[in-house]
Design a protein that fits this description.
The protein is of the alpha/beta class and 403 residues long. It has eleven helices and 14 strands. It has two domains: 4-273, L-amino peptidase D-ALA esterase/amidase (4-Layer Sandwich), CATH 3.60.70; 281-399, Roll (Ubiquitin-like (UB roll)), CATH 3.10.20. Strands 1, 2, 3, 4, 5, 6, 7 and 9 form an eight-stranded mixed beta sheet that branches. Helix 1 crosses helix 2 (86-104) and helix 7 (292-303) crosses helix 9 (319-328). It starts with 16 loop residues before the first strand and ends with a helix.
């Protein structure tokens, strides 16, 4: 679905969208740090945000914008989270939106605001204002790469994708950029994700489609078990494709919703794989659960276990750590019924750990991508969690982290 021709397309790929990323001097390393995404045509807007009760000022402001049902722009910065900044932080977030609105010719409540970076610092508003104005002047169909790079912090690269589908005889385009590397755990993660589409869709249905997509994507990843103050996933749909407006849950809606899920899952996997200091990408498939929630709880217990994560980093064959996490997950299990596989090879069954081919297992554990299957044999529901290992580098990155 995500071909080479889409590599640099991103959020400016759908009709009517432009983007930019500029240097405003907010990041200490001097890299791009202010992003702007814009559609002159009014867009339906949907959003999901962190569940952390200590939410950053931009989160509160953006929730209000989503509540209006429409938006024209997203302005975001990296290098300062504008979290735990009190009334000053609220005023600064509002100023970001107002500066962008003035530069674009729209209203303040047409602008989604997002920030990421060090918690507790105030935004340097002189730099921010100059950066937003600069970005507004540089908006273009080629601006997605810079916009994506402007929102990353400890990421090793910007996550972006684009695709198209046909609905009602019209080509519908989707584009997205995302960031996330550390402080990653539902709900949601230290992540920002901005998705654009030229589909015409009812705002309430757009919000429902995003919630459904988020449930199986960004809420299914973890790097370190920490929940951020700034998580935001926002979708803008400007209707420029000219399709018959999606107003019911018909086949057009299902096609739209499935595509949105695919995009979100792809970006979620990239975020997990790019975990701070990560050397492994771990997929944990939990089956045989009584409910989706039980399956997720079991998977998250394994994914968040430092002992499991460090074992995979060290390429150590230690399935005991996995079954241990399954056992303390809080979900009712019968240990003798649980089956665990690494790379398709059974490593725990019937309450014991069978002999395995050590050379074959060594090869499996040496891979970058490792699949862990956990069948608890209690029901028919399942869930998939995406995570990374825990390396020496993760400790170094976070011990030294200054935005």
């Amino acid at each position: 679905m995500f071909s080479d021709k889409h590599k640099t397309a991103g959020v400016a790929y759908p009709q009517g969208f432009t983007a930019a990323g500029v240097r405003a001097g907010i990041k200490k390393n001097g890299n791009l740090d202010v992003a702007l995404i814009y559609t002159e045509r009014t867009a339906a807007v949907a959003g999901v945000f962190t569940q952390n009760l200590v939410a950053a000022a931009p989160v509160h402001l953006s929730k209000i914008v989503v509540g209006t049902g429409t938006a024209h722009a997203i302005v975001a910065n990296a290098g300062c989270a504008n979290a735990c900044t009190g009334e000053q932080g609220v005023r600064d977030a509002e100023k970001m939106a107002q500066v962008a609105a003035d530069a674009l010719g729209c209203r303040q409540d047409d602008v989604i605001v997002a920030s990421t970076g060090l918690i507790g610092s105030y935004l340097p508003m002189d730099k921010m204002e100059a950066g937003i104005k600069d970005a507004a002047q540089k908006l273009s169909k080629d601006g997605s790469v810079n916009a994506g790079n402007a929102i990353i912090t400890t990421d090793t690269y910007s996550k972006a994708c684009a695709t198209e589908i046909e609905i009602g005889g019209k080509e519908i385009r989707f584009g997205a950029i995302a960031k996330g590397s550390g402080m990653i755990c539902p709900s949601m993660a230290t992540m920002l994700c901005f998705i654009t589409t030229d589909a015409d869709i009812d705002q309430n249905l757009l919000q429902e489609a995003l919630r459904d997509a988020n449930k199986v994507s960004f809420n299914m990843i973890t790097v370190d078990g920490d929940m951020s103050t700034n998580d935001s996933v926002v979708v803008l749909a400007n209707g420029a494709a000219g399709n018959k407006k999606i107003v019911t849950k018909d086949t057009d809606y299902e096609k739209f919703s499935d595509t949105l899920k695919t995009i979100c899952i792809e970006l979620a996997k990239r975020i997990a794989a790019d975990g701070e200091g990560a050397t492994k990408f771990l997929t944990i498939n939990v089956t045989g659960a009584k409910s989706f929630e039980d399956a997720k709880q079991v998977g998250m217990a394994v994914a968040n276990s430092p002992l499991c994560k460090t074992a995979f980093f060290g390429e150590n064959f230690n399935p005991g750590r996995v079954i241990c996490a399954v056992g303390y997950s809080g979900v009712q299990i019968s240990p003798s019924e649980v089956v665990i596989k690494f790379g398709g090879v059974p490593v725990y069954a019937d309450g014991v750990m069978p002999d395995v081919d050590k050379d074959a297992m060594k090869k499996i554990l040496a891979e970058h991508d490792i699949v862990i299957d956990v069948d608890i044999n209690e029901g028919n529901d399942a869930a998939t969690i995406y995570t990374s290992d825990l390396s020496y580098r993760y400790i170094a990155v976070n011990a030294e982290y200054v935005s």
